[in-house]
Amino acid sequence: MNKAVFIDRDGVINEDLGKYVANPDEFVFLPGAIEALKKLHDSDYKVIVITNQGGIGKGVYTEKDLAAIHSKMRKMLEKEGVKLDGVYYCPHHPNEACECRKPRLGLINKAIKEHRIDPKRSFFIGDKTSDIKAGKDVGCKTFLVRTGYAGHDRAYDVEPDFVVSDILEAVNIILTTK
Ligand SMILES: [Mg+2]
Ligand SMILES: [Zn+2]
Description:
Layout: E1 3-7, H1 33-41, E2 45-52, H2 54-57, H3 63-79, E3 86-90, H4 106-115, E4 123-126, H5 129-138, E5 141-145, E6 162-164, H6 167-176
Parallel strand pairs: 1-2, 1-4, 2-3, 4-5, 5-6
């Protein structure tokens, strides 16, 4: 069984603009994010992005736009020698009651199955309470970062295991904790 770090995208890896990231130009890495992903890539953790992209369901941008955004993300990471093990997204409208929109577990469970992951030895890093709820519900240890929404959405009443300044601090803790 593998272990993994599940990572939310907007507000953790890249700047959350307070609106949807609708094209590659609007995808901007947060300080320390590439370094953090590189450290994880060089470790024995799988690196898996789990992201809600409700803007697709709302018609703000298309799956093709999202593919272009993720292609830019992967290319910029590949330049630094970083490869993501998986990028999973929910394209549905927030009101659609799908199985995959966080805090629901459809995407994470799919990743767990496809990569043979033991959630008990894995972590979830996010900036919203929906990330923390999903991580906890699936049995991971959770990190709330102070970038992006920094947990201020208050949509769910959940306590993260750790509160850290950003993804790099989270990764440093993960890699020094045995
Ligand atoms: Mg986020
Ligand atoms: Zn969905």
